[in-house]
Design a protein that fits this description.
Aminopeptidase; 2 domains; eight-stranded mixed beta sheet; 7 helices; globular
Length: about 200
C-alpha cells in the first residue's frame, strides 16, 4: 500500500529500499527526548540507543526526494508490538546502569499490552515529524493514509498530553474525539505542566 500525496510518499517502513532506522530514531529523539532526559540529555545518544527498537512492518513513513524520512507513525492490531527494546543495545549506548533501567521501565511503557482492545480497532502510536518538515501536514497525511488503507473500523490514540495543542489540533482535524482522560499525579503535573493524559478515538463512517 503506497500513496503519493504532493511531495510525500507514504509507505510501510519495511518496504522502503533503504535503511530508515537512523532517521526514524532521530524523529523519535526529537519528539520524545523531554520524557527521556533521565537516560540522556543528548538527543543524538537517545537516537542511537533506540534505533534498534522499531518493528518496521508496523510503521508507516513519509518519504521525500533524496530518501529523506519526513515523518512516521505506527499502526498495530493491538496484539503485535510496534517496538521491541533490546537491553544489550540500550546498555551499549546509555551505559550499564541507565541502559538497564531503560530496559526495565521503558519496556513496561513501550511494550505494554493494550487493555480490552475492541475487535477491529487499530491503535496508532509513535506519531512523529522531522523538525525540518513540521507544519507541512506530514503527520496528517500519514494518519489519513492509515485510516484509508487499513481494515479497522476504529482507531485509538492513547495518552496525548492535554497541553500538546499542535497534536490535539491535528487529531481533531482528522476526526478523533476524546473518550477518556487520566489525571497526571500532582507532583508530576507541577513538574511538566501536564494535567491530564487524553485518549482519543476515530470511528469510520
Amino acid at each position: 500500500m503506497e500513496s503519493d500525496d504532493n511531495k510525500f510518499t507514504i509507505v510501510k517502513a519495511d518496504k522502503v529500499d533503504f535503511d530508515v532506522r537512523k532517521q526514524m530514531s532521530e524523529i523519535f529523539s526529537e519528539g520524545f527526548s523531554q520524557w527521556l532526559v533521565f537516560f540522556s540529555k543528548d538527543k543524538n545518544k537517545i537516537a542511537e540507543a533506540f534505533a534498534h527498537m522499531f518493528v518496521l512492518d508496523q510503521f508507516y513513513v513519509a518519504i521525500t526526494n533524496n530518501k529523506i524520512v519526513a515523518g512516521m507513525t505506527a499502526c498495530t492490531d493491538g496484539n503485535n508490538l510496534s517496538v521491541r527494546l533490546n537491553k544489550k543495545e540500550l546498555r551499549k549506548h546509555l551505559g550499564f546502569f541507565k541502559g538497564s533501567m531503560a530496559g526495565i521501565f521503558l519496556k513496561k511503557e513501550f511494550e505494554a499490552a493494550f487493555e480490552k482492545i475492541p475487535p477491529n480497532t487499530g491503535p496508532i502510536e509513535f506519531v512523529g515529524t522531522a523538525s525540518a518538515f513540521r507544519g507541512q501536514g506530514v503527520a496528517f497525511k500519514i494518519i489519513r493514509h492509515i485510516i484509508e488503507n487499513t481494515p479497522y473500523n476504529e482507531y485509538v490514540i492513547e495518552e496525548v498530553a492535554d497541553t500538546n495543542t499542535p497534536a490535539m489540533n491535528l487529531y481533531n482535524k482528522l476526526g478523533f474525539e476524546e473518550y477518556k482522560r487520566k489525571p497526571v499525579p500532582k507532583a508530576m503535573a507541577k513538574r511538566n505542566g501536564i494535567n491530564n493524559l487524553l485518549s482519543l478515538k476515530y470511528v469510520q463512517k
